[in-house]
Amino acid sequence: MAPQQIQSCMDACTLCAQACEYCADACLNEQDVKMMTECIRLDRDCATICRAAAETMSRGSRFIEALCRLCADICEACGTECSQHQQEHCRECTVACIQCMEECRRMAGMPQAMPAMTN
After folding, report:
1. Does residue 113 fall inside a structural domain?
2. If we measure between CA atoms, which residue out of 71, 10, 9, 11 comes closest to residue 42?
3. From 66's CA, which of 24, 31, 52, 111 has a CA 20 to 30 Å away?
4. Quick one: how far is CA 82 from the chain centroid?
5. CA 63 from chain center: how many Å?
6. Digits of tens for pLDDT over the chain (119 positions)?
7. Residue 16's domain spans which residues?
8. 25 within domain boundaries
9. Would you say residue 116 lies in a domain?
10. Cα-Cα-Cα-Cα dihedral of 68, 70, 74, 79, to 10°?
11. pLDDT at position 92, please?
């Protein structure tokens, strides 16, 4: 992998983790928190895997492709869930998840098919 490609994916993972953490926290402040339960869970999972992927890439692990495949799948799930909500923090999270998913798919050599997410 080219260093620029690795750095671009690490940056997308870091930004996605931050967006997911912000979204999860903001969801906890929503009037109907119960409605946001799945969003919060996926935000937390996504933030965790994004941080792990960025850290793994930074040390040149041989598991980068496998971890990026998993990260892309979780980003897709999180982005899909967030796209179902109208809150601004969910919209921002959706964008970050899509960008991270695309970068991780490139790193893993996966097809770039776009998910059916609504903004």
Report:
1. no
2. 71
3. 24
4. 11
5. 18
6. 677 889 999 999 999 999 999 999 999 999 999 999 999 999 999 999 999 999 999 998 999 999 999 999 999 999 999 999 999 999 999 999 999 999 999 999 877 655 555 44
7. 3-108
8. yes
9. no
10. 40
11. 97
Cα–Cα distance, 89 to 67 (Å, whole number): 26
Output the domain CATH number for residue 85: 1.20.1270.360
What tokens does 35 get? 């409605």
Task: Give residue 86's identity as a one-letter amino acid code.
Answer: Q
* pLDDT attached to residue 1: 60
pLDDT the model gives residue 113: 56
83, 95, 114, 119 from 73: Cα distances, Å: 15, 15, 12, 19
CA 119 to chain centre: 16
Question: Residue 104's closest CA among 43, 38, 23, 14?
Answer: 14
Please give the structure tokens belonging to residue 40.
Answer: 């919060």
**Which residues does 93 contact at the CB level (< 8 Å), separation at least 6?**
19, 20, 22, 23, 43, 78, 79, 82
- Is position 13 within any domain? yes
- Number of compact structural domains in the chain: 1
